[in-house]
Specification:
Phosphoribosyl-aminoimidazole Synthetase, Chain A, domain 2; 369 residues; homodimer; 2 domains; 60s Ribosomal Protein L30, Chain: A; 7-stranded mixed beta sheet; alpha+beta
């Protein structure tokens, strides 16, 4: 293994090319807002640019989203040869987590999901073990999150999806009721606590980097972590679903000011909200061995690692400081470790990770047009 | 050009492998129904297996769906070299049509859509003309259908999506209000008229067959149709969006008993509803030159052509016979030709196309588990 650094651009994800499209699409999308009102469901404009789209349904708000897994299934395909398991039950959970964990950030309870399973050829479905694991994992995750599996699409797309690959995505509809649950950051303010909920590992972001690293390591996915597990197997630990935590927080009346799902862009997502606020992080959650391994072997600086991977924090809650302890307790009750990691301050929009001497400024997270 | 036949299995779409998965997924999905009720939105069970999933929101029903384009964008990529146009404005319309034309079959008015544009590498978005046409076509189609573009996902998925390809899909949420608009075929009955609405061409089904045919033809997509147009260009005529027709039909109080979007499986979709009923077709709409050409050049029998392509009929309405004339008039008012093509009769579930001597029995359309 050479000590050469891996960057995201080398790994095939060039945000400078994707972000202009996102911004163009957002600007055009914004102009279509009157149609929702004409149909009797005026949009909540502040949801534009947030993780889910929200419209006003009268007695409640309705939230919707479509999210894709990314390339994590390619890791499962490779690691299967090591472990003898397809891992598609976990892959199903990852895919649903991408949609559900985003949907709940606006205060929604998930109601129904649609599956999008596009394959490169019909043969994908002839592998019974893989197909059954995918379906069973999808069902089990729906049961865990309390969401109805409403339907889906299973197209065979030769020439569009790579041979023997599967493009996995999920769309989700949710309800915000009572309407006071709506959580778009309007009340996010200096003095708020930042509570970070643990991740289980890499979740489903940073996978392209992991794949490139696997190609460079002499042992590939079979490389051992300090705890003895194969790195590839640890990569496949499924993403934590946080909907039970948010449901309990809302039911118990906690006053959530904002919620951010830590996905692409890593800890830069802590400043997801566009307000001019500084987020000072003073306490770090433990880093999962699978991510510490990647940071070291890909020779990532701390700023690169925390700016692209979740580094142990999968989900962020922003709420009044005197409620932080209750939020941590609710998460723990659902088996998810959490900590009061920092606070919101007046100042320019940026994230300061004090224990590491790392800072991200607003320009490093340009999500909105 | 050899006279050898092209079949769907040769063209890479083997329904015998896809359908068992669909059935497995449907069976598991069905078991998650109680979650929607627990969230306060009990599902309308009869919508399972229909084109959109419907839940009861109290004062209205809510419908949702996710649909993909298929492989039509690959045709646009090839034909661009002939015409000098990207055709992605049309491709955007095709993608949205797949979702909207399915959603409206249950009686829904579309409210919002999410875009799913997954590429094989960030470079896809560096082609400004293509990217701008896609975004502009998406916006224009949303305006035509009166639907708000709520957001979307634009992932770069190297290794999952083929290099320089794009996997396009759309998810859509709609409202059924008043609730009497709910259209799931409960009142479909012998004596009902079958009204067929014209297609603009191939729409977005049968594309894999078209691509295989293009590889076999000496001139490929540049082959000329009798009307002088290039076959490849005609393939890219965008799918008709039927939502304005259905909106007017419901507003004017027509009593729609069932609606079927004619997509994969061609005219077999006329017997989409599971009831034991016979559909006797006595009048045929004109066949678009682009489809007649394919039937002839791929040496498809009439049964194969009408069983896999739309052959001029993109959408089917089932309603009392004395309202058929009004339905035809409404479609024409929106610039869409239509005809009273046949009627529903007692008898085994099958489609009889009398003028062609073609029949499809129930076994040829197994969509439900």
């Amino acid at each position: 293994m050479s000590g050469a650094k891996l960057t995201y651009t080398q790994a095939g994800v060039d945000y400078s090319k994707i972000d202009p499209l996102k911004i163009l699409a957002q600007q055009m999308a914004r102009q279509t807002a009157p149609h929702a009102a004409a149909a009797g469901f005026p949009e909540v404009e502040a949801s534009r640019g947030e993780s889910a789209y929200v419209v006003d349904a009268g007695d409640f708000y309705l939230a919707s989203i479509t999210e894709c897994l990314g390339t994590k299934a390619l890791v499962a395909d490779r690691v299967r040869a090591l472990t003898g398991r397809t891992h598609y039950d976990s892959i199903a959970q990852d895919t649903l987590a991408m949609a559900i964990n985003d949907l709940i950030t606006v205060g929604a309870r998930p109601v129904s999901v649609h599956a999008y399973w596009a394959v490169g050829g019909s043969d994908w479905f002839a592998d019974d073990a893989r197909m059954n694991d995918l379906a069973a994992g999808w069902k089990k995750t729906c049961d865990y999150a309390g969401v109805a599996w409403g339907g889906g699409e299973t197209p065979s797309l030769s020439g569009v999806v790579a041979p023997d690959a599967i493009d996995l995505a999920a769309s989700c509809v949710g309800v915000i009721r009572p309407k006071s649950r709506l959580c778009l950051g309007r009340r996010l303010a200096p003095g708020d606590a930042v509570v970070l909920l643990q991740s289980s590992g890499i979740h489903a972001n940073g996978i392209t980097l992991a794949r490139k690293l696997a190609d460079r390591l002499p042992e590939g996915y079979a490389a051992r972590l300090p705890d003895g597990r194969a790195w590839g197997e640890a990569l496949l630990d499924p993403t934590i679903i946080y909907s039970r935590v948010t449901e309990t927080l809302f039911e118990e009346g906690l006053d959530l000011h904002y919620i951010s799902n830590i996905t692409g862009h890593g800890w830069r997502k802590i400043m997801r909200h566009p307000a001019e606020l500084t987020y000072r992080i003073t306490r770090l959650p433990p880093v999962p061995p699978v991510l510490r391994f990647m940071q070291e072997r890909a020779d990532l600086s701390l700023a690169e690692a925390y700016g692209s991977l979740n580094m142990g924090a999968g989900f962020a809650l922003f709420l009044p400081e005197d409620q932080a302890g209750r939020a941590v307790a609710v998460a723990r009750r659902h088996g998810i470790a959490a900590c009061l990691a920092g606070r919101v301050e007046t100042g320019p929009r940026r994230v300061l990770i004090e224990p590491l001497g790392v800072a991200y400024d607003a320009e490093s997270l340009r999500l909105r047009g």
